[in-house]
Each structure stands twice: as structure tokens, then as C-alpha cells.
Amino acid sequence: MKKIILFLLITFLSVKLDAQCTGVTMASQPSDVNATLGGTATFTVTVNGDPPFLYFWYKGSTQVNGPINSSSNSNSFTTPTLVAGNNGDCYHCIITNCNSMNQAISAEGCVNINSCTSVTMANQPLNVNATLGGTATFTVTVNGDPPFLYFWYKGSTQVNGPINSSSNTNSYTTPPLSASNNGDCYNCIITNCNSMSQAISSDGCLNISGVGIKETSNSNNFVIQPNPNNGIFSFDFFDGIFHQNIQLEIYNTFGNIVYYSKNASSKSEIDLSKHAKGIYFLKIIEGHESIINKKIVIQ
Q: In Å, how far are 38, 83, 174, 202, 277 from 191, measured between CA atoms?
């Protein structure tokens, strides 16, 4: 008899405790979110009822977040970085309370990824003639949807970038120039669409007056043309002498040889179209004598 009375008492208390918990109901639903490529989207619900609540977030039928620990038990869910394939993804939340005896299921909120036109180059940085102690400015212009981020490089070393708004610019100005800066080349990497798209400029290079390999010629009857151009040069001696077995050597501004020909003649063509834009130096050797040192420029 005592056991029956104890069972009835426990049952009564349990029912009474449950009756004191107000079941969860939806107060506000997750809204659709307009987002951009490379960004994120956040969905939020609010509920009525007695806490504590447990929130289980779903993308379609797949659970993507839930009360694994206190930090993931939230009435909001933020997506990972969005890619084009996430357009139209929909999320909803299942919320429980009263020791999971009650639940409410939200409506869906969906992702609408706004289109973004990728960045492309409009104008490349140009080579700059400068003077010792002066500065040089390189500039790019681009097409596409702003905002853009500009990362300027000297060779492979970043020299400026969007660390703050003042340094995020489509132009870069060098520090005061010394002789060692002759031939330095700069380029810019530009991103947009939350860094999901990028364009890389060509190089713009420095030509510092009075610095570099000295141009010399033992013949006034020599021409290389067009100079500058896009990399296809022709040269000609017009001194009435047939030159043969001429050795051609072309160096970049670091002193590295980039082109060599052993048996050129008085009229020859040089193809440097696959080389980077910038300043180069042509050396012509006849016999054992260097007869020409000439600066050439690829634009």
C-alpha cells in the first residue's frame, strides 16, 4: 500500500512540474538574407515560452549547428563564407524546451547572393623615367564592381596594401630613389567581390636617369628599332660593312643574361615578346670587341 501511495505522489509531482513549464512557440521567423560572394549570411529566430531553450539549425534536412556546447546553442546561425553555389540555400531552426518535451519549428530563411562583376584590368602601370632622389608613381585602373582592394608589389615583395583606407589606392608612389632602384619593377594585385575575384597587373619599371649600364657605341651607323616596343626589335648597321658572326647578349637590370645569339648578321631581329615589360641592355660583340651597348625597353 505504501508503494502505491509513493508512486502516485511521484506521478502527481511530475505532472505538476511539467504543467509549470510553458511550451516554446515562435515569436519571429528567420528572414531571407541578401548577401555577396565571399560574405556570410546570418539567420535569427526569437521564441516565447519558458527557458532554457535548445536551438537546432538546419540547412534543408541537414543539421548545421546545435547545442553541442553552450557556444553553439544560439538563436542565430551564421553561414560559412558564401560561394556561388550557396545561392538559394535555405535554413530553419527547431527549438525545444521543457526538457525537450515541447518543440517549435521555424519557417525557412534563404540566401540571395547578389551578382558581382569580377575585376578586370583597364589600364596597366607604365614605365617611369625618374631622377636620383626623386620619386615615381605607378597607377592602375580597373573595371568591375567596387569596392576594390589594391595590393602593390615590388617584385615579389608587398610594399603597400589595404591595411587601412589611406593605403588602399590605385596608385603607388615610391620612397626617394637611389641608384640601386634603377630597374625596379612594380605590379598590383586587385581584388573585389569580397576577394573572390582578382586581377594582376603587368609590371611598371623604373628608369633612373644617369644610372645603369652606360650606352656606348664605336659606330654611329647603327640603329635598333622600334625602341621602345612590345618586344620585337630589329637592328641594322648601315656603315657599308657586312657584319657577320656577331654575338648578341641581352641583360636585364639585375645583370642576368636573358637572350643570346652567337651568329647574328648586320640585319637581325630579336624576339623578346615573352619577357616581362621593362628595361634591358643589348651588347653586340664582334670578334673580341664589344662594339655596342644599347638600352632597349619593352612596353
A: 11, 15, 22, 15, 22
Tell which of 83, 114, 145 closes a domain: 114
Q: Do 65 and 93 belong together in one domain?
A: yes
Q: What are phi and psi of 151, to 5 degrees?
A: -120, 110
- Report how far residue 208's alpha carbon sits from residue 254's, in angstroms, rounded to the nearest whole number: 14
CA dihedral 146, 143, 163, 278 (to 10 degrees): 180
More confident residue, 125 or 243: 125
3-state secondary structure of 170: coil
Q: pLDDT per residue over 95-122, tens digit each?
A: 999 999 999 999 999 999 888 889 999 9
- For residue 67, whether the previous peptide bond is cis, meaning omega lies within 30 degrees of 0, is no
Parent domain of 6: 2-114
Residue pointed to by grid coordinates 670587341: 289
Q: Tell me how long the chain is.
A: 299
Spatial CA neighbour of 82 closest among 45, 34, 118: 34
Is 3 in a helix, a strand, or coil?
A: helix
Number of structural domains found in the chain: 3
